[in-house]
Amino acid sequence: MTRTSPPLDALVIGAGPAGIGTALALDAVEDLTFGLLERGQIGQTFLDWPEAQTFLTPSFTGNGFGATDLNAIHPETSPAFSLGVDYPTGSQYATYLRSVVRHFRVPVLDDAEVTSVVQNDDGFTVESARGPVWARSLVWAGGEFHQPLTPRVSGSGLADRACSAAAWRAREGRAVVIGGYESGIDIACHHVEGGADVTIVDGETPWDAGTGSDPSFRLAPRSRRRLEAATATGRLELVAANAAGVKRDGSEWVVSLDNGSRLRTDSRPIAATGYGPGLGPVDHLFARRPDGWPELDEDDQSTLAPGLFLSGPAIRHGGLKFCFVYKFRQRFAHIARVIGDRAGKDTGALEAWRAAGMLTDDLSCCGVECAC
Ligand SMILES: Cc1cc2nc3c(=O)[nH]c(=O)nc-3n(C[C@H](O)[C@H](O)[C@H](O)COP(=O)(O)OP(=O)(O)OC[C@H]3O[C@@H](n4cnc5c(N)ncnc54)[C@H](O)[C@@H]3O)c2cc1C
Where are the alpha helices (DSSP H) in 52-145? Predict the structure, then answer.
């Protein structure tokens, strides 16, 4: 593999909110050389979202008073302001990301899938569809959307993934959704609103209030409201049991449950069972925690390959999950500062991110519970 010369100080992989946000923070470090490679187009994951799917975290332009829009990736931007909506669809959010890239002139190279990454003594050699790149630090921001988790049951291949367009097409008769957290509730309500009868199965009953106030463990208010409306139609059933298997029976599908009962449905069941960390070509450069998520040091850096950072929803520290934009954006400026300090650059401008509520470097302050 040939290498470009001289090396970039940093290379970011993936032009979603995590990659673009990290690149914007890198841009605030004086004289740092960096670039961003994207497999498809800017905001590709959001372009791939089913049409009817929207954000569940609301956008609101509170920026002027230190309450930066929850879905913003830079302190001076707000999807609510630029899109005029509070719950963007995927294509609307991709429009926001494109406008941020254009406005701040983020150096993104699209159609540049990264196919392999090798760590050397002096950085990383990255092979992409647009040729090789050599960088001293690497930020993986490849997202999770393309690694939906398959339910661990026999016949799981007979189910549609909740992130697929097929799962969102109108259903007649009874639909069965496996998994009852945010994406399961979202798609179940969508089908009830479309006139179908829907059964959601989940042994952990995540639709119950949950413990604590962290939205990573508790349904968002909007989801709860939609759930109440769907339940009031009498066409939504919530079953506290796990799917044990899926079978085809003539023109029907049969979902057997671990409580011994069976559900018959006229359409393919829908699996809303979450996402994996989706580490693609850097998978071999991360050790795993006992729960399977990537093991990171306190700077969101791989414990196996120092210099390789993770940005995005797969970040976990202890029991903390950074799975929403407003959470994982707390780390863009922190990662940029670690990279900038190592390169001997001035990182002072990153303090503006803290003032906007977009920089957390002391993780002990996260996870505070609301009193009421
Ligand atoms: C269904 C769903 C709903 C969600 N709703 C919300 C919500 O309401 N609010 C919220 O805050 N969060 C939400 N999230 C969580 C999170 O904000 C999103 O997952 C978000 O897309 C994560 O941003 P990202 O930049 O890490 O990944 P992505 O947006 O997935 O971006 C990753 C990018 O990397 C590119 N890429 C991947 N592999 C390569 C490669 N090998 N080479 C080059 N490029 C590559 C992809 O093409 C993609 O453009 C949701 C997630 C899902 C799955």
Answer: 79-83, 90-104
Asked if residue 17 has its Cβ within 6 Å of ligand 1, the reply is yes
> What is the average pLDDT value for the chain, to the nearest integer?
95
Q: Which of 23-27, 95-99, 360-364 has the lowest mean pLDDT?
A: 360-364
225 domain-assigned = yes
Please work out, in degrees rounded to the nearest 5, the angle formed at the alpha carbon of residue 222 by the alpha carbons of 221 and 226: 115
Residue 43 alpha carbon, nearest atom of ligand 1: 49
pLDDT digits (tens, 9 = 90+) for 145-179: 989 998 889 999 999 999 999 999 999 889 999 99
Q: Is the CB of 139 under 6 A from ligand 1?
A: no
CB 278 near ligand 1, within 6 Å: no
Top pLDDT among 5 and 245 is at 245
Which residue's alpha carbon is nearest to atom 49 within ligand 1?
Answer: 44
Task: State the total domains in the chain.
Answer: 2
220: tokens are 């968002």
pTM summary value: 0.96
Residue 1's pLDDT is what?
Answer: 41
CA distances from 164 to 63, 145, 226, 253, 328 (A): 34, 10, 21, 19, 24
Task: Identify the domain containing residue 171 by its residue range.
Answer: 156-271
Answer yes or no: is the C-beta of 145 below 6 A from any ligand 1 atom. Answer: yes
Query: Which of 253, 271, 289 delimits the end of a domain?
Result: 271
Ligand 1 site-directed mutation target among 37, 44, 59, most atoms within 8 Å of CB? 44
3-state secondary structure of 154: strand
Asked if 244 and 256 touch (Cβ cutoff 8 Å), the reply is yes
Backbone phi and psi for residue 72, each to the nearest 5 degrees, phi listed first = -80, 150
pLDDT score at 362: 87
